[in-house]
């Protein structure tokens, strides 16, 4: 069943529809994820399926509020692959090289810039994409200084920080863990089989402050870490509420200043 927000997805539009909403104030969403094992209980596309459903829920909420800003959104076709070389030892991992991922994101951003789209929000669903997304964004920002590029880099970390009462173990963290499994139960319960979820696995790492660049099979014997068996749809709804409010608050604040920030705001006062 289609959602109201489907009409803002570029792949669903024809040229006339695009031209009606495409202008210098358009806000473009770029969705990036991965294709990799998330344990036996979650689909390989979890990292792009959740951002895809999240942006639909965000737009549906704006549309239901009858906000005129709803007409300035363009959601680009999802990028389903990411940098997953740290998961490559698991079956059917589809990984792009860092250089490839950087080029892909750069090319998408450059294409938006040449179409006079200057307001971009990247919704990322995979840890391996954080560094390539930042590199690409900084390169394009240098080329188009007037462009605003924002990124929700790590929602799975953010939700535990925003509400530490939601999760029972490890602030919900984990690959296919409590938070990610809960999120998928909320948006795509048909793709979650909790009966197949592995037992709790919290990696034994010496420090939270110094990062080890591990391979995933060094942390777990399955494709999952964390505590997926503690996931619930209710926790997933809490995640969605946190992230939706965060994204909407960001958009409202940016709109109130005509997408200016920092000294650009100070200079107008």
Can you tell me about this structure?
This protein has 269 residues and is an alpha/beta fold. The protein has one domain (8-262): Rossmann fold, CATH 3.40.50. It has 8 helices and 4 strands. The protein has helices at residues 15-21, 46-64, 98-114, 130-143, 155-162, 178-187, 233-256, 263-266; strands spanning 27-32, 73-75, 119-124, 148-152. The protein has a 4-stranded parallel β-sheet, with helices on both faces. Helix 2 crosses helix 6 and helix 6 packs across helix 7 (233-256). It is globular and about 50 Å long. The mean pLDDT is 95.
Strand order of the largest sheet: 2-1-3-4
Which of globular, elongated, flat, extended, rod-shaped describes the shape?
Answer: globular
List the total number of helices. Answer: 8
Q: What proportion of the residues form beta strands (DSSP E)?
A: 5-15%
Write down the secondary-structure element order. HEHEHEHEHHHH
Derived from helix and strand composition plus strand pairing, the structural class reads: alpha/beta
CATH homologous superfamily placement: Creatininase
Cα separation of the termini: 48 Å
CATH architecture: 3-Layer(aba) Sandwich
Q: Quick one: how many beta strands?
A: 4
Mean pLDDT: 95
> Could you please say which CATH topology applies here?
Rossmann fold
Biggest sheet descriptor: 4 strands, parallel
Task: Specify the helix fraction band.
Answer: 25-40%
Task: Tell me the radius of gyration.
Answer: 19 Å
